[in-house]
Amino acid sequence: MAIAGDVCLDMPRGDRAVPRLTGQSRRKTAALLIAIMVAALVGDPAGQTPFSVQELAQYRLTTPVFTRFTAASRSIAATIRTDPALQQDPLFSREIVLSDDARAAATALESRLRTHLAIVRALADAKLSARDYTTFVIALVAARLAHGFVQSGAMRRIPEGPAASNVAFVDAHQSEVAALLADLGIDG
Checking CA distances to 51, which of 6, 101, 109, 158 falls within 20 to 30 Å? Predict the structure, then answer.
């Protein structure tokens, strides 16, 4: 057995050395493995695919995704309430919620969702990607705004298609949507 630094080289047969980590090398290796696992969970925000206007405009809200979205949002809301950084710089800032550039807002939100470890866990537990969550919340907020315009008489109707379907979804789930968005800090 030969020792080179913190690596112990066992020589079981002939001249083939089998490395075995000892001491500080074991701690360094563990830290490296943890860093790789976190990077895999968080992903590379710079490597994300940009949202397309079509992707956002054609998205349809559905009950199965709403169920997962609700589970993730409850965990995210709890994180928002306890994380001083998210209280200082809200996840759902006015710039994101009321942006006139949905693509930029979606990209910014997805990036933030992918870089906060507690939120990454909440999304994973709910079996939603940051992109799916982002697309759903952008469509939900837009549909809620349109629903409000229709209810107030500012708009008579929504043209047929995904937007009309999403407004009908919000109408069918008004109380749950209102409570959930309020919990996330998105004003009604």
Answer: 158
